[in-house]
């Protein structure tokens, strides 16, 4: 048996391979996990991380290689077999059932019952204990999960993982939907688990998180391990980026393009309010300007964006694009005026996953390709191919289903949609959520290039650093209230958080 400084290994993966319909997803992956450690797995979208997770979770069976668990070579034949071993997985795409209560979700598949009769009180009490362990004792076990925020749904998923005799928890991008306070709580829980000897495989694109929570790092690129069990503190960021991408990527934002003082106002928002959600909001965005909304998860940034776009009907106020006043609550009015939205939940709200790339690109511009009542798919493909090439979408096959693309490439497809449409106003909600460091750098450059070409852009991001790095002007929002509007150069992350904390206490 292999050993390391932690003692005997809990999990040992050697040379795992996996092929799907001629595509080699894993070409030889190694991973060692010791009890009580946080082992971080990094790699670009499409590197093979998801396939590795599903192999360890029993969803996929490897074509070759070996898996050893507590020193014994094993075959994980199904998700149930993985759970029986003590391997629980929290997927990035939340796997809770909205129609069930919190307690019912936590014990789904191993309900507390006798003779077919559920022990509701015992289940609720056990669920409450798990939620308290996670620092969320105020979350009621009887609450319907469908009414919860994404962050609380993740807590339910974590409680489910802990509801069994778990020895290893695999967390896939667990912080993607959390604000800084929730991330701190997540880290507290992870440290408590590892102190009890439970191992955590932590998958994240956020280098700063890995520095805070990880013990060791393994890197996957193009289905192969490029590094295994690196020390977190000993490995420079530049080396990690090179191992993930095969090249040096400057981990910085592109230079700002100065916005001309006489640049025309493209988007004007005047006293827009949505009862029960946010108070009156007013601002303008000029051609070539990037406006950023900074604030914590739950601050109502997305609600403001969706109201401006017409996905929610404003209670009062008005929105105009190039002088054209939009009809409240009408997405059609916004799109016709030249406004585009890339939503936070790109898979459920932005893309038709089973349709090919070219259909997703031309989705908002069908009239351009209409010929005698029919769509000219040849013209659609050609227009989409041009943008796919310009944005370096990989693989560059217009007929490939959107579902098969990595997160970064799905985001590029949404940008391509509005480039084809020729939109002068672009609203970007969490544009790099779940996107790796290499693709992030590309998307940052694309956003800056769009602004340089005259597009007025609004960026919403849970990462304050991202807002400050991209935006020319920043609006700080807390609980539906605008706290300040300032130039991005005149405020830093600490300044934003200070405003939010003071605003929350007011």
What features would you describe in this structure?
With 506 residues, the protein is α/β, with parallel strands linked by helices. The protein folds into three domains: 3-245, Rossmann fold (3-Layer(aba) Sandwich), CATH 3.40.50.300; 259-338 and 423-443 and 450-506, P-loop containing nucleotide triphosphate hydrolases (Rossmann fold, 3-Layer(aba) Sandwich), CATH 3.40.50.300; 353-422, no CATH class. The protein is 34% helix and 26% strand. It is built from 17 helices and 26 strands. It has a six-stranded mixed sheet, sandwiched between helices. Helix 13 crosses helix 14 (407-421). The longest helix has 16 residues, at 180-195. The chain is globular, with a radius of gyration of 24 Å. The model has no long low-confidence stretch (mean pLDDT 88).
CATH class of the largest domain: Alpha Beta
Helix/strand/pairing class, anyone? Answer: alpha/beta
The domain tally reads 3
Q: Specify the helix fraction band.
A: 25-40%
Major sheet: arrangement of strands: 8-11-12-5-13-14
Largest sheet geometry: 6 strands, mixed
How many DSSP-defined strands?
26
At the fourth level of CATH, the homologous superfamily of the largest domain is: P-loop containing nucleotide triphosphate hydrolases
Compute the average pLDDT: 88
Gyration radius over CA:
24 Å
Q: Please, how many helices?
A: 17
Short characterization:
The protein is of the alpha/beta class. The protein contains 17 helices and 26 strands.
